[in-house]
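stage 2 :: seqdesign
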């Protein structure tokens, strides 16, 4: 909630206090009769034990504008899958739960491995990719939305605002990204967005100069938001990373395939909180440290496709430029927080910047050692070209799992 600023690159749809959630949901229900709306929920079994997901289901149960819900379940054994089927049974919408670790979907994955097309690494991107495949195989949706399962401040209005721009047949948007401030417990959160992505994009612009792709990424108020919606026909051409590069990967694919006129961002909440991961200074394979490296690699790969040539000198300069810019921002965020009765821990913020700066170089050398190692998954068009029956077999496997282990 705030200004009505536009950046001239990506249309920004704000949340003014005049908005009526009830009206919007009523209108959406009529749109959803012709443009069927599917929601994808990538979930870890452990999230079923948290109160956040329970509240999300309470809210979704009242969201009449959603036609179908596709839940991708990771890290669940048989007993846990059965439990998940019960857990999600209270959703009134048509829904399926993909048992990604079950024998049927593993067999599908092995078939993809034989073709050299399996998503290499486990992670959120892989889970989302399989859910996208299911949506394509089911052939019953026109709009697909996605959000995380750890949102503590969730309400159905967020989802309504996220899908509205692509569900409204009078709008020309094909893709919509959510934005909001991440604030909780008197603190500014969103550490990777504020302290890593924002200054990194500025530093890259400074070194590379005018670059249409970087300008596009900079236009997003929350480029790492896990909430986005798009027209379903876009899914077959999406080539996304299997790891934390997912959000940047999706924005990049949309940029490659569509005019920026088809893209918008929408303010979906006045406040947003979710599960926080540790910074993980000791272990680079997890937490925000891992997240920043995955994101940097995805960015480098996309810039290379855009014709940018990298060298170790480039990454060393980028590190220095980034560090200066991020430290300047630490102060700006502190001031912004203070004026709003909030707080930031300047010492921890500076330590985060130092860690992210080191990861910029780490990701750079990993990228140069093996540029093809960045885990982008082949798109579903390619899978269908390689194995025409796979999508249908995948669809049947999901259906069978849901029937066999479903609620009696
Ligand atoms: O959005 C982000 O920057 C990351 O997901 C980290 O978020 P957090 O600082 O709110 O945990």
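stage 2 :: out
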């Amino acid at each position: 909630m705030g200004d009505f600023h536009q950046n001239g690159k990506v249309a920004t749809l704000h949340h003014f206090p005049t908005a009526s959630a009830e009206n919007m949901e009523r209108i959406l229900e009529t749109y959803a009769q012709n443009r069927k709306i599917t929601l994808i929920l990538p979930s870890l079994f452990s999230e079923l034990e948290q109160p956040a997901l329970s509240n999300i289901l309470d809210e979704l149960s009242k969201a009449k504008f959603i036609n179908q819900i596709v839940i991708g379940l990771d890290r669940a054994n048989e007993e846990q899958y059965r439990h998940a089927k019960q857990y999600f049974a209270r959703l009134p919408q048509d829904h399926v739960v993909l048992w990604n670790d079950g024998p049927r979907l593993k067999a599908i994955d092995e078939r993809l491995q034989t073709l050299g097309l399996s998503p290499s690494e486990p992670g959120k991107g892989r889970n989302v990719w399989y859910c996208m495949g299911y949506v394509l195989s089911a052939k019953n949706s026109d709009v697909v939305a996605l959000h995380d399962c750890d949102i503590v401040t969730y309400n159905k209005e967020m989802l309504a605002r996220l899908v509205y721009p692509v569900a409204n047949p009078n709008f020309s948007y094909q893709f919509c990204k959510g934005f909001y401030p991440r604030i909780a417990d008197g603190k500014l959160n969103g550490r990777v967005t504020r302290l890593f992505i924002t200054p990194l994009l500025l530093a890259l612009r400074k070194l590379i100069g005018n670059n249409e792709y970087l300008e596009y990424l900079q236009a997003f108020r929350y480029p790492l938001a896990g909430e986005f919606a798009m027209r379903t026909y876009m899914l077959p051409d999406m080539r996304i990373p299997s790891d934390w590069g997912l959000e940047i990967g999706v924005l990049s694919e949309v940029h490659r395939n569509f005019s920026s006129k088809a893209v918008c961002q929408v303010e979906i909440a006045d406040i947003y909180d979710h599960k926080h991961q540790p910074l993980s200074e000791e272990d680079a394979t997890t937490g925000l440290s891992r997240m920043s490296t995955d994101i940097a690699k995805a960015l480098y790969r996309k810039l290379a496709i855009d014709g940018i040539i990298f060298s170790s000198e480039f990454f060393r300069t980028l590190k220095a430029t980034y560090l200066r810019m991020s430290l300047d921002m630490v102060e700006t965020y502190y001031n912004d927080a203070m004026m709003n009765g909030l707080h930031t821990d300047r010492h921890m913020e500076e330590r985060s910047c130092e860690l992210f700066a080191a990861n910029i170089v780490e990701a750079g050398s990993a990228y140069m050692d093996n540029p093809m190692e960045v885990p982008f998954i082949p798109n579903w068009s390619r899978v269908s070209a390689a194995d025409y029956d796979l999508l249908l077999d995948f669809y049947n496997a999901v259906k069978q799992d849901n029937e066999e282990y479903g609620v009696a």
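stage 3 :: structure notes
- DSSP finds 14 helices and ten strands in the chain.
- The pocket of 3-phosphoglyceric acid is lined by residues 182, 189-193, 224, 276-277 (CB under 6 Å).
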